[in-house]
Design goal:
mainly alpha, Butyryl-CoA Dehydrogenase, subunit A, domain 3, Oligopeptidase F N-terminal domain-containing protein
Length: 121
């Protein structure tokens, strides 16, 4: 997972460059979140069986720290999408059909644009 978190850095500041770049970033985000959810669920279920076991508590704490680290690493994605030029998302959705599963979430992010300050403000 650490390697995937580091891969995210290569996308920072570049999501606007192409539909392919945006797609790869969103796919990596999806993969990270799916893996993290499985790990978190397992650790949480394991902890619920025996809250007194220090080893289980330590693993649960590690997963919680990883959860925070992943979400912190992913936080740039929405901000960058918010500053895309008008029509960019629609253009990307037309150019890259593999972005279609992300259509709803991308358009929801854009709806927040009018209620969000530009990151540089």
């Amino acid at each position: 997972m650490e390697n995937d978190i580091q891969k995210l850095d290569s996308f920072k500041g570049h999501l606007h460059t192409s539909s392919h770049t945006l797609l790869n970033c969103l796919l990596l985000e999806e993969e990270l979140l799916m893996t993290l959810t499985k790990l978190y669920s397992y650790a949480n279920l394991k902890e619920s069986t025996d809250r007194t076991n220090p080893s289980i508590q330590a693993n649960s704490s590690k997963i919680s720290a990883l959860w925070t680290k992943v979400h912190t690493a992913l936080s740039f994605i929405h901000n960058e999408i918010l500053i895309f030029g008008e029509g960019t998302i629609e253009k990307y959705l037309t150019e890259e059909t593999k972005l279609e599963p992300f259509r709803k979430s991308l358009l929801e992010i854009l709806q927040k644009r009018q209620h969000t300050l530009h990151p540089l403000q």
